[in-house]
Amino acid sequence: MKTWGGRFTQRADPAAERFTASLGVDVRLWPHDIAGSLAWARALARAGLLTDAEARTIADGLEAVRRELADGTFVFHPELEDIHTNVERRLTELIGAPGGKLHTGRSRNDQIALDERLYLKEVCGRIVDGLRLAQTALLARAAETVDAPMPGYTHLQRAQPVTLGHHLLAYVFMLARDRERALACRERADVMPLGSAALAGTAFAIDREALARDLGFAAVSPNSLDAVSDRDYVLEFLAAAAITGMHLSRLAADLTLWTTAEFGFVAFADAFATGSSIMPQKKNPDVAELIRGKSGRLYGNLVAVLTTMKGLPLSYNSDMQEDKEPFFDSVDTLDAILAVLPPMLASLTFRTERMREAAGQSFATATDLADYLVRKGLPFRQAHEVVGRAVRHAEERGRGLEELPLEELRSFSTLIDADVHAALSVDASLRARAVTGGTAPAAVREALTLARRLVDAG
Ligand code: ARG
Questions:
Q1: What is the tens place of the pLDDT at every residue in 174-192?
Q2: Global confidence as pTM
């Protein structure tokens, strides 16, 4: 029954068999396993190790296996450990003796590395597309709110006015770097390990370059030990996924905060919120909370595989079979997040009036008063001091700086003139920050154009 039964006399212990089986997890690799086997059979034929008739029989057999897997009629045997042996055994059942030649010069060690790389290349492409859709959704909301003021925060304290469009675009640029990381990950995965066999390289005259071309790889692995031993391509993906999860958790955290009664900056559509089983009035931003929460498992998966790989002697070790659950979990988690994020973003109602009102409160334009004094010739440190005293004075009287009469403001510096009130408005504060990358609506419009180009490219 087993592919390695020859040197064994005892049956496998059922608990050991269950413990070592990976079929439940690696079954999702079947399309790639079959693609790899089809190409391997062609390579064997090119090397004269299969007759053309045998190669054709194997190819037809593999296509039949593929159909069974695709339509759900394939009968799985968990006692055969993994997807590779399940496919091979069914092939042999279907076509007989030629099936036994497919594994010539190949090992499951180079086979799994191949399957994972093929799968990863596909995943990276999908993640790049998903990130692009998230960016597009953010861009649409940013375009509506290029000049909508809101309080900007540092230390979660109101700091200076920014525009909502500027805030949303920050995430578009973060996701642009995430896309670059996913693309770089795909590039690094684009190296073909097949032909490395168990560890030392196959003993047959396989044209690996032709095989790589056949499978759509850009290059062949230059060291067989490296090719069957490393999982850095998985780790790179997990690291990139963790960083994306971190970015999206911050976006989700902003929205969760903004939808509180205390902020009141945004409302979630009913379709993207849930209620409470006890408190009839509740509307919870569950989708955003879970996007925030799922970053935890994305980090955990990275640390799990790093820890599994640490200190493993070369070359292949069974420990490495443990890479798949965290790998696939991060794929599924990112897929799930990226599916729900764009429609959730589209459904938000931004309370821009309330944001505008909050943008002018809490001395948000105090820096603008200091900048005003600098423009009149006062060194910045002195201006900072003067404005600090004015803020204390206004705060004691329960007023904003802009509400103080000119004479009162002039008691702090005679450089202050009638034009000061215009300088203290939220719109003037925004307009002043016209540098590239600043929050002036004109600058945000420029950034929006740049972001659109980034999203459309690649
Ligand atoms: N299921 C194994 C894995 O996921 C495939 C390679 C197994 N090789 C071996 N000699 N047991 O890593």
A1: 999 999 999 999 999 999 9
A2: 0.95
